[in-house]
Specification:
Blueprint (H helix, E strand, L loop, with lengths): L14 H9 L8 E2 L10 H17 L4 H22 L6 E4 L2 H10 L8 E5 L4 H14 L2 E5 L8 H8 L4 E7 L11 H10 L3 E5 L11 H4 L3 E5 L11 E5 L17 E6 L5 E3 L13 H18 L1 H19 L5 E3 L9 E6 L4 H10 L2 E2 L1 E3 L4 E5 L6 H17 L1
Parallel strand pairs: 1-13, 3-4, 3-5, 5-6, 6-7
Antiparallel strand pairs: 2-8, 7-8, 9-10, 11-12, 12-15, 14-15
Helix pairs in contact: 2-9, 3-9, 4-5, 10-12
This protein binds pyridoxal-5'-phosphate.
Length: 401
């Protein structure tokens, strides 16, 4: 495959490139794979990197100076690849094990006082929402719930209704996992900052689906999953914390990686590890870190992030337009603010039942609990023909009801 990182529009006129991409992803040949929003397909080379590293651990052991140096280099390389994705300094990136961990680190790090307020939305995923619930229970924080993310709701107007000087944080997803709405994060961040609130952004769906330059987005914290659109293994993720917010987002968990080597005494004084790395605390699984870095570098260097973003969005629109006219289908994604997630319902069948029926027919999608809808995720490796097949299968299920 040609090495390219161009911004050339992604179209179906790139069959060779798409064939080469698909050759790298064995799982996409098993079924029509339209659920990267849960777990992306693992690239062959990421799998190989993972198993090669496992073999080294098996044969050479997991101890000794060379091993620790290798592990530190590996983490630094993967942080650098993540920083490339997020358009930030590698010192602003902490390796995590998933988005949920990143959301908890950022949210629990603020100095919450009774009466402080946090803004969030009914559409948020439990990975960001449940930590907010804990803030209420533990610190008496007032939750200002909104319907941001629902189609027909103007996110900025909705936010303006609840923001006030007591708002300490705004907790929202860059891309809503259930409706697929892409939120205007920059405008949200500007509004939040105007009242002194921080923006803690859930990027589980956004990281790898839409451009995620954290400085451009204006977010203070941005938590990503490795296993979804970044095509890494389970148990990987990343948390961006803006350098100048480290004074406000403190450490909650402490371990041997939290303190600069030699920079503590036995009286409890210490200097934290530099940058966001202080949040890594203890261990990462090296084979998984290696595999995530391998996936990221493949997408960056061979697929091209801009190409991937454009292809994902083009397929998302293609999917929307293929499903919207079908008999009995209601769309739940705003077509003017979407990328790679398309939500819909089909009359006469529940979202879980339709998910199961499509799986039997070789098509993998999913459903979400709120709104209770079916969701399609269009990866850069998908094809228009696969989406046509999805549409056909939906019609066949409808005909069988
Ligand atoms: C918006 C959103 N946030 C958080 C999560 C949880 O991600 P993780 O398993 O990486 O914590 C998901 C997973 O589906 C999600 O869609």
């Amino acid at each position: 495959m040609a090495t390219e990182t161009t911004t050339r529009p992604a179209t179906a006129a790139d069959p060779d490139k798409i064939a080469a991409i698909r050759a790298e992803l064995p799982a996409v040949h098993e079924r029509v794979y339209l659920n990267t929003g849960t777990n992306g397909p693992l690239p062959r080379r990421a799998h190989d990197a993972l198993t090669d590293y496992c073999l080294i651990e098996l044969t050479e052991g997991r101890i000794g100076p060379a091993v620790f140096a290798r592990s530190a280099e590996l983490k630094a390389a993967t942080r650098a690849s993540l920083a490339r994705l997020l358009g930030c300094d590698p010192r602003e990136v902490a390796l995590t094990h998933n988005t949920t961990e990143g959301m908890n680190i950022a949210l629990m790090g603020l100095d919450w006082q009774p009466g402080d307020e946090v803004v969030t939305a009914t559409t948020e995923h439990p990975g960001g929402l449940y930590p907010v619930y804990l803030l209420r229970q533990r610190h008496g924080v007032k939750i200002r719930m909104t319907d941001i993310g629902l189609p027909g709701v103007d996110p900025l107007a909705e936010l303006r209704k609840v923001l006030n000087p007591k708002t300490k944080a705004v907790v929202l997803s860059h891309v809503c996992w259930s409706t697929g709405m892409v939120l205007p994060m920059r405008a949200i961040a500007d509004l939040a900052h105007s009242v002194g609130a921080l923006v803690i952004c859930d990027a589980a769906q956004a990281g790898g689906m839409v451009p995620s330059n954290c400085y451009d987005l204006g977010v203070d914290a941005y938590a990503c999953s490795g296993q979804k659109w970044l095509l890494g293994p389970d148990g990987t993720g990343a948390l961006f914390i803006r350098q100048d917010r480290l004074g406000e987002i403190g450490q909650t968990f402490m371990g041997y990686l939290s303190i600069r080597p030699g920079m503590s005494d036995h009286q409890g004084h210490f200097v934290p590890t530099e940058g966001a790395q202080r949040f890594e605390v203890v261990s990462q699984y090296p084979p998984a870190v290696k595999a995530l870095g391998t996936s990221l570098d493949w997408i960056a260097d061979e697929v091209g992030w801009d190409w991937a973003y454009a292809r994902i969005a083009a397929l998302g629109r293609y999917c929307y337009d293929a499903l919207a006219p079908l008999d009995g289908v209601t769309m739940h994604t705003p077509r003017d603010a979407m990328a790679g997630l398309v939500s819909f319902t089909l009359d006469g069948i529940t979202p879980p039942d339709l998910t199961a029926r499509l799986y039997e027919r070789g098509v993998i999608i999913r459903y979400t609990p709120y709104p209770h809808v079916n969701r399609v995720a269009t990866g850069f490796y998908n094809t228009e023909a696969e989406i046509d097949r999805l549409a056909e299968q939906i019609q066949e299920v409808r005909a069988s009801l």
